[in-house]
Automatic annotation (TrEMBL):
One of its GO terms (cellular component) is cytosol. The keyword Oxidoreductase applies. It comes from the Bacteria. InterPro entries: F420H2_bilvrd_red/Heme_oxyg, Pyridox_Oxase_N, Split_barrel_FMN-bd. This is Pyridoxamine 5'-phosphate oxidase-related, FMN-binding. Keywords: Oxidoreductase. SUPFAM superfamilies: FMN-binding split barrel. The keyword Oxidoreductase applies. It comes from uncultured Actinomycetospora sp. PANTHER family: HEME OXYGENASE HI_0854-RELATED (PTHR35176). GO terms for molecular function: coenzyme F420 binding; oxidoreductase activity, acting on the CH-CH group of donors. Residues 8-121 form the Pyridoxamine 5'-phosphate oxidase N-terminal domain.
Length: 141
C-alpha cells in the first residue's frame, strides 16, 4: 500500500491517459490562476511538464517552488480525479524529449497538420518542471 503522499499504481495508470492537468503555482497574495497543461507521471512518482524558460509560471516558481496539479476524468466518465501538491524543481535537461513524448501522446501525428505542429513545437526552447509530491489526494467512484 502506498503512503498518502505517493502516487499509486492506479493513479499512474489514470495519469498515463492523454488528459489535461490544471497546474497552479504559488503566487503569494495573487489569486491562483490554474492553467491547462500536458504532463507526464514518472515511474519515480513525480509529475513533469515542459514550458518556456521565461514564462510567468517559471518566474513564480523560482520565487516560490510550490505547485499543484489536478487531473480529472472527462465528464462522460465516472468521476475521478488525482491532485498532487509539492515543491518543484526546474530542470534544463530532458524538456525536448518530454515535449516529443507528450506530442505523441496527445496528438495524432499521422495528421500532417499535427505532425507540422510537433516540428514547430520542438523548434522552441523549454525547461522541465518537476513536481515532487508532498500530498496526493484522489477521488474515484
Amino acid at each position: 500500500m502506498s503512503a498518502p503522499d505517493q502516487l499509486t499504481a492506479e493513479d499512474l495508470a489514470f495519469l498515463a491517459r492523454p488528459l489535461l492537468g490544471f497546474l497552479t503555482v504559488a503566487a503569494g497574495p495573487v489569486p491562483p490562476q490554474p492553467r491547462p497543461v500536458w504532463f507526464e507521471a514518472t515511474a519515480e512518482g513525480t509529475i513533469q511538464l515542459f514550458t518556456g524558460p521565461d514564462t510567468l509560471k517559471v518566474r513564480r516558481l523560482r520565487r516560490d517552488p510550490r505547485a499543484s496539479i489536478i487531473v480529472a476524468s472527462p465528464a462522460t466518465e465516472r468521476e475521478r480525479w488525482v491532485a498532487v501538491t509539492g515543491s518543484t524543481t526546474i530542470e534544463t535537461d530532458g524538456a525536448h524529449d518530454l515535449a516529443d513524448r507528450l506530442a505523441t501522446r496527445y496528438w495524432d501525428l499521422d495528421d500532417p497538420v499535427r505532425a507540422a505542429d510537433r516540428e514547430a513545437l520542438l523548434s522552441d526552447q523549454y525547461v522541465r518542471i518537476v513536481i515532487h509530491p508532498e500530498t496526493v489526494r484522489r477521488l474515484a467512484f
